[in-house]
Amino acid sequence: MSSGIPIRPSMRRHCTTFALAALFMAPGPGVEGQFSSGVNVVEVYAAVTDAQGNPVTGLHRDDFTVLEDNRPQVVSAFSEGDFPLSVALAIDRSFSMAPRRSGGRPQVMSAPNAGGTFLAELRPQDESMVVGIGSEIEVVAPLSKDRAAQIRAVQALTPWGTTGLYDAIIQSVDAIQSAKGRRALVLLSDGSDRYSKASAADALDRARQSDVMVYPVTIGQTAPSMFAELAAVTGGRSFHPRDAKELDTTMRTIASELRHQYLIGYTPSRRIVRGEEQWRVITVRVNRADVRVRARDGYTTR
Which of 13-17, 153-157, 218-222, 287-291 has the lowest mean pLDDT? Predict the structure, then answer.
C-alpha cells in the first residue's frame, strides 16, 4: 500500500452560474474584454473533433449555436485555446487490475504506464493530482505542477484491495472541483465496482452536478455503459482501447483534447430566480456537418 492523503467527500456542488467577472480567471487568446460583476452567466467548455477524433481548431463564435431548454441563447463570451487546466488522474489499482492475459486486451497493469504518459503530455502550467483506487481511495500525489513526483507516485502503484469505483468517482470529482480553471477527471479502470457505498446513479448524479469533465478509460474486456454516460453528461469522452499501444495513444489523445477546447459564455434568456433550484438542459452545436461537438448537458440553478 502506498502512502497518501485520504480524500474526504465534500459537499455537493451545483454548477455553473456565477459573476461574469469570474468567467475567465486567466484569459486565453481571443477573449474580448472584461465583464461586469453581478450578471449571471453560464460557461460551457466544448471540444470539437473531426471524423478521426482529432481536435478541430480555428472555429469562431458564429460557428456555434447554444440552446438552453431548446431556446437559442446569445453567446456573450467566446474564446479558444490556452485555459488553465486542473486534472485528477484516478487509477484503479485493485487486485482485479493485476497483470493477466485477456483476449488481446492491454495488460491491465499497463495503467500506471498509461497514467505516466498522460501526465508527461500536460503543459508545465497545468496542475494535476493522482488518486489511487483500492480498498481505500487516496491521493497519492497532491494537486501541483510537480509532474516528476506525480509520475513517480503512479509508477509506485501496486495491486491492492477491492474497487469502490462509484465512491472513487464521487470523491475524485469532489477533490478536483475546487481547483482553478477547467477541471477534468481522467479515470483508468476495468469498470468493476466492489463494495461502494454509493450507486452508479449516485456517481452519475454527482458528476453531472459538478463542473468536472470526465474521461473514463476502460482497461479490460467489457466497457461498462455507465462510463459512456459519465462522459456524455459532463462533456468528456469515453475510451475502450484494444491493446497497450492504443491505450498509450488514448492518453495522448485525451491530453490533446484538453489543450484544444472552446469556452462559450452566455447570459440565460430565461431569468434565474435566486433560491429556485432548476435543472436546465444545454445543447451546443457546431454549424458544420463534418465535426462532432461535446459539452456538458446542463446545469442546476440555485
Answer: 13-17
pLDDT of residue 7: 45
Contact 46, 78 (CB under 8 A): no
Q: What share of the chain is helix, strand, coil (3-state, %, to 5)?
A: 25, 30, 45
Name the one residue in this structure whose C-alpha cell is 491492492: 160
Q: Reading across the β-sheet that carries 298-301, which strands appear in turn? A: 71-72, 64-68, 278-286, 298-301
Q: Under DSSP, is residue 6 helix (H, G, I), strand (E, B) or coil?
A: strand
**Grid coordinates of 209:** 452536478
Task: Determine the Cα–Cα distance for residues 100 and 195; give it in Å rounded to an integer.
Answer: 23
- How far apart are alpha carbons 191 and 167 in whole angstroms? 13
Question: What is residue 99's predicted lDDT score, i.e. its pLDDT?
Answer: 57
pLDDT category of residue 162 using cuts at 50, 70 and 90: confident
pLDDT digits (tens, 9 = 90+) for 171-213: 999 999 999 889 999 999 988 898 899 999 999 999 999 999 9
Q: Of 88, 97, 141, 92, which is closest to residue 118 (Cα–Cα)? A: 88
Q: How confident is the model at residue 275 (pLDDT cuts 50, 70, 90)?
A: confident
At residue 154, φ and ψ (nearest 5 deg) are -65, -45
Distances (CA, A) of 277 to 5, 68, 72, 75: 34, 15, 21, 23
* E strand or H helix that includes residue 128: strand 127-133
Residue with cell string 509506485: 156
5-6 and 262-266 strand pairing:
unpaired
Helix (H, G, I), strand (E, B) or coil at 59: coil
Cα dihedral across residues 289, 293, 296, 301: positive or negative: negative
